[in-house]
Amino acid sequence: MAGIPSVTVVCSGFVQLAADTGKFRGLPDIHVAEYPGAIETHGADKIRKNVEEVLLERIVGSLTIPVGKSTTAIATGEPGSGDIIFEGTFEEVNDFFYRNLWSDGLPIVPPTLEKAEQFLKYTDRSPNEGIGVFEPSLRQATLWTVAVNGVMAGCRPEYMPILAAVAEAIADPHFGLEHAGSTSGWEPLIILNGPIIKELGFNNELGVLRVGNQANTSVGRFLRLFMRNVAGYLPGKSDMATFGRPFYPVLAENEDRSPWGPLSVDRGFDKGTNIVTVVAVMHMSPPFLTFGDTAEDHLATIASELATEASSTTTWITLGFGSEASPVLVLTPLISGIIARGGYSKSDVRQYMFKNARIPASKADELCIMRGKTVCEVVEKGMLPKSFCETTDPNRMLPIVHSADEFLIVVSGDPMRNRSIATFQASMQGLATSKEMKLPPNWQNLMAELAR
């Protein structure tokens, strides 16, 4: 944009991503030089050979091409709110949306004007109110946009306040939406708190993360559709997931059966407030078993499982790149009840995990390949607290988070089972971000009408 010749260097497979990113930012003629292959799999000699014999020539060639004129960053010619873009049968509409890459491959509910307007009855905010600019497309989304994608996902109109809060959460810079197209292919998870769980029929017991319940499933699908259609994450273009994974249904907390306060209180909100928390899931553990009739029996196994699951590049990339981690520990009412009866508060559980869910420094050193040869070198670079290198003893035990407060604890799932799960996010990507829902003043009247 400054008129200075430049070139973007990318590895094979990322040329289309670079071109699309340039278009989104007003540089439709961005110059790209492709490094052949995946550089992380090449040794020093091959990298030198590729740079000298291939990449340098491509860089010089790109720099000698005249720089094109910049255009506006956001694509023009897109339909406006209320525009009719297609008319046809259910099958014809779905074919049209699929051809235009506006669906996730499953049938969508055609977003008619009437259906979108029904969603807007559940908010007193203007349909044209902006709720954020979304990376990488840099599109400004409105409540109308939220409603349209909610219709498509199969949501009910009364879910509208949840959908708006979810969109606002991922628009928050803290969340790190710009990283959602990374090759790790992480998927966001929505955690729900508040009376709205009961009011709208969200499942928070057996099979909570299984598709099937309309509320949990459709709201989870909405988020993936919204990231596709508004943020612009399209597989093979701006979404570079090596494998990817399906969307997650909403994880609703079972506040009535929890022995502790809900996650929303831990996040700084008053109890009884309707909250969404969105966090990236790079890795979800298997539903592991714990046994025994004392709190310590279960806590010891949980800590061991957390350490095992965290012994991966996922967690150590998290610790090495950012100053925050967002691991989520999901306990059933049965397990949380045993632990609480043993005298442990939720804060006590977090402290226990911080002290006991640890891995040897020698293992951590193996996992620091992307940031340095050892944990201590990562500390020297300012990417980890000094406490991670108080000694160079390879047998010293290191925590899997920066501090105990980073553990997010949620009570949900089958009330009668002794299984737990844990999720981990990566780096600054998809950090836990919470938003309060904005219910209209006549919300209780609307709920009373639905109950009739």
| Count of separate DSSP helical elements | 16
Ranges where pLDDT stays below 50 over 5 or more residues in a row are 70-76
Number of domains: 3
Strand content: 5-15%
Distance between the termini: 59 Å
Question: Could you give a quick summary of the protein structure above?
Answer:
It is built from 16 helices and 15 strands.
Notes on the protein architecture:
With 452 residues, this protein is an alpha+beta fold. It folds into 3 domains: 8-63, no CATH class; 78-276 and 435-452, no CATH class; 283-428. The chain is 36% helix and 13% strand. It contains 16 helices and 15 strands. The strands form 5 sheets. Strands 8, 9, 10, 13 and 14 form a 5-stranded mixed β-sheet that branches. Strands 6-5-7-15 form a 4-stranded mixed β-sheet, with helices on one face. Strands 1-2 form a two-stranded parallel ribbon. β1, α1 and β2 form a beta-alpha-beta unit. α4 crosses α5, α5 (143-153) packs across α8 (214-229) and α10 (295-310) crosses α12. The protein starts with 7 loop residues before the first strand and ends with a helix. The model is unreliable at 70-76 (pLDDT under 50).
Tags for this model:
five-stranded mixed beta sheet, 15 strands, alpha+beta, 3 domains, 452 residues, four-stranded mixed beta sheet, single chain, 36% helix
